[in-house]
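User: Hello, can you help with two protein structures?

Assistant: Certainly.
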Amino acid sequence: MKAFLYCLLSALLCLSAAAQELTVGSYNIRYKNNNDSIKGNSWTQRCPSICHQILWERPDIFGAQEVLHAQLLDLEQGLPNYKWIGVGRDDGKTKGEYAAIFYNPERVELIEQGHFWLNKTPDRPALGWDAACIRICTWGHFRDRQTQKDFYFLNLHMDHVGVTARSEAAKLVMQRITAMTDGGKRQAVLTGDFNVPQTDELYTLFIASGVLKDTYTSAAMRFAENGTFNSFKVDSYTTGHIDHIFVTPATIVNAYAVLTDSRWQADLNGKMTRRNLSDHYPIFARIRF
């Protein structure tokens, strides 16, 4: 009887811990590009698989990058259990790519939302420093409905060209997160396509302050057999992670994964070929505040 009660108590404790766990993620879905259609990687072909993958993984909240408005509507239809926040980076409305945040409203409650641009005038759209594109960061203040703990979630896409733009944007983002979290004392998650691997000095800007840590390096269990950028090449291997999930120091990171799922599609000759869902692999982490 004692053994039975011990097993029952252990099972209940495990269930309680699992219930407190949040699954967070980051996914660069690749913007809708007509040139991709020529190579068999059109958004129309990829979107259903991306939605099915997300529905299977069931993240509670995740950041998505390169989302054009038409794609946002497609994801809205394909992910009926999710809501989203964000604006188009070019005009603060619907023009240009979104750095959207998708969340399951049954698990997390949106308290407040906002955004700022990664430039010298964060309250309005403009190119930042030597950036090739206008860049934006979306943020939301959320509450976990199960634990009643609140946290900030930020999502961004850093410039792919401007070295100075990435560096200055990193400083700006860290200033905002430091203020939001009172120096890391409150909880926050930062996701995005940072366009630099973990070996770049920019990466160090995010973890050196002590306000954030990387879920990849902090995870108790890790399933990451590849880097995160694949350029639509199914057999491409890299050790570089240019997509990251950062969290505040007190966060417990139970697991981290880079998902290298693919799909099968008939070519012009009817032969089934393997295709990637995006030119980035999505990343997910299971965390507890």
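That covers the first. Now for the second protein you mentioned:
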Amino acid sequence: MIIEISSNEFKNIFKNEKLHLPIRWDGDDFIKTLETLYSDYHNFVTNSCSDEEAQEVEKCCSLIIDSVRYYLNGFPEKAYSVLKKLMDFIMKQPIELYEKSIYEQLFDKYNDPLDLYRIVGVSDNKKYDRTRVFHTPYNLRSKVSTSRYSIAGYPSLYLGTSIDLCREEVRLNPYDKFEIASLFKLDREWYHSGIRINVIELALKPQDFLNSENNVINNTQHSSRRFSDDFLQNKEVKSAYVLWYPLIAACSYIRVNKSDPFAVEYIIPQLLMQWVRNEMRGFDKLIGIRYFSCASERASDLGFNYVFPTSGEQSSEFPFCKILSKAFILTEPVYIHEFDSVCDCEKYLKNQHCKLCEPLKQED
């Protein structure tokens, strides 16, 4: 079903700050917290949409709550089955599904406007190659802790559109003294990499639409978290967002205690990544998710995060995901502290990528 909604109706729903993202909560009862949010949301939708459309939104909310309940009761398989029903429904009307593997005549792969960064904490000041800033190798999966979109022990590649954003996401542990950074680029040429790349849009906040309508410029330090007005005012985008909001919200709770081994805030995003991996069957397809940071309210405005799962296939000779190693090109890492500022570090990496960005090779 396609939601039909006017700009005024859309604004009436999302102008309430109760729906703004990310959400900081008390850490007590996650199901009750979701129920309260969804009850408010459904009431706002009911006042702006038809009864049939409100029922579809209620269906999305109920599926998410049922999924969380199954998971917390010790039935992760049932939890995933319920979430899959949700995805089968809302993927009929995605907000945006970015095709990243089409070769565009306006730029080649070495002038791709999407700059992504990854930083890693290290304990010494020696030279590291590019494998150190790639995803955690399969043979070291025991060191992979739980993350928002990936379970413990399963490596994924997390990237951000600025080094500042990456720093907010990755806090140094006591044994790390330095940070190294690399610039990543997607290899969009399908005939070159053999990988078809898609990215699901989850990075929209209600505030983005409201700021656009009110001609408010996002005065963050980086301009990488900006949507075009044409996109934000697009009727189809707004209609899809009404359906997708319950899922985006469920993925956007700020974690209360990062020292706890289990994070209830990660249940839905991790099940969503499981769905993504099931959609990636075969070795010529890569699906990623673009989302805003939930490390803090400040971090949510610093740029965009991207997460790409590994395929799971491994060999003793090459302990990295073959799909990801073909889909990305990246620079040799540099030490951030050697530059006068983060901005200078980013500029340096951008100037280096033409001669240093090459597909990750097994001999690395």
